Predict the 3D structure of the following.
Amino acid sequence: MYKLYPYFTNDGSVGLFSPVADDIYHSTYGALTEAYEKFILPSNIKNYLKKNNEIKILDICYGIGYNSKSFLNLLIDFIYNETIYTDNNINIDEIYTNNKKLISSKKSVRNEKKFKVYIHAIDNDKNLALLSPFFVNGENINHRNSQLSFKQEKIQRMLSEKIIRKFKLKKEVNIILLLNLINQIDNDIIEILKSKEYKQFFDKDLMRLMAFLKSVESKYTFFTCLSAFLHNIYYKYISPSYKNALNTLKLLDFNFNLNISDARQAVKNDTQIYNYIFLDAFTPAKCPCLWTLDFFKLLYTHLDNDGMILTYSNSALVRNAFLNAGFHVGKIFSESANKFTGTIAVKNNSLIKYELSEYDLGLIKSKAGIFYRDENLNLSNEAINSIHKSDVQNSNLISSSRFIKNYKNS
Ligand SMILES: C[S@@+](CC[C@H](N)C(=O)[O-])C[C@H]1O[C@@H](n2cnc3c(N)ncnc32)[C@H](O)[C@@H]1O
């Protein structure tokens, strides 16, 4: 059976580890918090929603979907209570404590616009993407088991005892995703969902709803237990979250396209132009194929003139690749962490709030800025790394360590 390495991150949301990539999928600081702070808040999507009624998002490396989910969470808040967003200095804590009020009744809808929303989510791991609606949001976790069920000392060290809960994901978001993915959920996924090993990480309500939706399809016989079935009917008719999810879908023209393939191929075959592109690949050294100059040139052709690519990477070679692909490049600043936590790439320079500093530009011109290449968008990560290694070895540019030393002494 497909093996998962889940654990609870410091905000209570589930994070994953990949032994193959030897990398974490999500920050130990908080998987959900990371999605908000690195992708949703710096994108200023709420401002975009005020002015437009159509939005197209390309979620590259969807994984278990935190970036798309955080966007949907914000969108639901927006359509049910736009007025809360009229203040530019929005108080995020206030928004999230008011969640229940915002979606408690259809009467609270103040936004008359019907939004047309298209999300193109790409990942090459089918299982993760199809499991995405089922992960718990950690609300009921009071005493987190600090022992990981797998050996990973680096992660273990970074997990704190205290859960820092800043953002709350509405159940409606997972229900909306489930309704969109139900036809693709197969027996492999159900096997994983039923596994005792992962029990604490999956939301029972969503599993019951899935069982109900599958049972009414009547093709599937895996949940034949009568009591579960009756419970599902009960769930369907009384669950406020289910009703809210359906009401929300009525207010939207919503199209969610899950594309299971290599992101390079998926984007090559795509014809859409996006307002926002979330690039959330594993770190450049682990997954260089999604950080190359050539991939970024391809992304350029899919970004709206006022669109924005967002990524968590601060790497000089990533920034240099964006610049060489024709983008203007800026930084993402996290107020809570009081540091720069990522990079944005845009065509319209005026969208940049935090410019690259003299230091950043200097580093880009050193060997640290030598970017990855993959001219035909088909090389393996190993081949890209090996070309990069020889590019660095053959370069006459100043080394990054010398540049940093000179900079500090200047
Ligand atoms: C850092 S994780 C993304 C986390 C994700 N955004 C989330 O919210 O769960 C990186 C993801 O990239 C996917 N991936 C790795 N190589 C890929 C490729 N060439 N094309 C598409 N997806 C890829 C992995 O399956 C993994 O889900």
About this structure: Residues 83-109, 219-225 have pLDDT under 50 and may be disordered. The two ends are 57 Å apart (CA to CA).
